[in-house]
Write a structure and sequence with these properties.
The chain has 147 residues and is an alpha+beta fold. It has one domain: Jelly Rolls, CATH 2.60.120. It has 3 helices and 8 strands; from the N terminus they run E-E-H-E-E-H-H-E-E-E-E. It has a 5-stranded antiparallel β-sheet, covered by helices on one side. A 3-stranded antiparallel β-sheet has the order 2-7-4.
Length: 147
């Protein structure tokens, strides 16, 4: 059974950050995000929500860049640009495939915070998954909850 002291105070704050534009691919952005977060709560949660429909966020391998290249190879083959069955093509051959890929991975990640640090596994990092050839800067809503 969990017991909380009467002086337990949960704070919550939300703000937006803009990530630098990146080319198509899977990009480790943990450091860029953390440089824009002034302070983490002692214990709690960080929720990152990407405010776009043709890119995604995910957590995965932060050490070997081959993993990011393998992700890109897989998604290019699984959901190819210019497939004849896509009818939403007004913004280019990469637009509808980007929407499908973004839906497969999702727009948000939630990371526990322990003792003022992200409680990620040794080999985990936050990826921005850019599915457009020219996606531009991406906006992430950051919500911090904790004590």
């Amino acid at each position: 059974m969990l017991a909380f002291s009467s002086n337990f105070l949960m704070e919550c704050t939300t703000f937006d950050i803009q990530l630098s534009p990146r080319p198509r691919g899977f990009h480790l952005v943990t450091g860029e995000i953390m440089r824009r977060v002034s302070r983490l709560p002692r214990n709690g949660l960080m929720v990152l929500f990407l405010k776009h429909t043709s890119a995604a966020l995910t957590l995965n391998e932060n050490a070997d860049p081959d993993v990011r290249q393998d992700f890109e190879s897989f998604f290019r083959r699984a959901v190819p640009d210019g497939a004849p069955y896509f009818i939403h093509t007004l913004e280019g051959d990469d637009d509808m495939p980007a929407h499908v890929k973004a839906s497969l991975l999702g727009a948000s990640v939630t990371i526990p915070i322990r003792e003022g640090r992200l409680n990620l596994g040794t080999w985990q990092g936050v990826y921005l998954c850019e599915f457009r050839n020219h996606g531009g800067a991406r906006t992430v809503s950051v919500t911090l909850m904790g004590e």
